[in-house]
Task: structure prediction
Amino acid sequence: MSEPLALHALFGGTFDPIHFGHLQPVTALAQETGLQRVTLLPNNVPPHRPQPEATAAQRAEMVELAIANNPLFAVDTRELQRDTPSWTVDTLEALRQEQGSRQPLGFIIGQDSLLSLHQWHRWQDLLGLCHLLVMQRPGYAMQMPTTEMQHWLDTHRTTNVNDLHAQPSGFVWLAETPQVDISATQIRHRLHTGENCNHLLPQQVLDYIQRQGLYRPA
Ligand code: ATP
Result:
């Protein structure tokens, strides 16, 4: 009998910049679900979308600084190396190829992303590739926006954590993670208006922001 493979999760985001609203709930999620490894995937933002203020290299650098010396986290910059839009489903297909069909894979999103999941490219293929691990986020509805989406959620939801380890994909886990009321938008706004952000993101990231002159008051 071969050894069971440990659940591995991916966490995509713009990370403009990465903050405690990302790091704290993900750390709690790892404890809740027995996750050993979380790979952060900074997104390539397609040209027709509002562009991040930081460059792709700066966003990746901030992620590196935020997770330095933390063995739970790794970073994968493959989406930044593409010049086409980085659809999550394509990245998951590539990772599935690399890691094999038996590897349990989770993709971490916040509650806000769950509510708009039906707008994602080929969203109905996601659960064939991974589990969705959903972190709570203050200010967002718990009910899905349509009865079809709610039905989809009720069909795929599990409350048995063993399912996430025993199956390679196919379940939605609604985590009981702490509600951390922080967004990158709020941080950019505070930095633009010269407000203190010490409690919102790691000091190493703040130091980098200052050194690079990012999100400066106008
Ligand atoms: P912005 O304010 O620029 O839109 P953001 O703070 O929402 O950015 P993203 O990088 O866009 O951060 O988010 C990446 C992922 O992290 C998304 O799935 C989002 O739902 C989740 N997320 C971001 N902030 C939080 C938070 N405070 N609590 C839970 N999930 C979060």
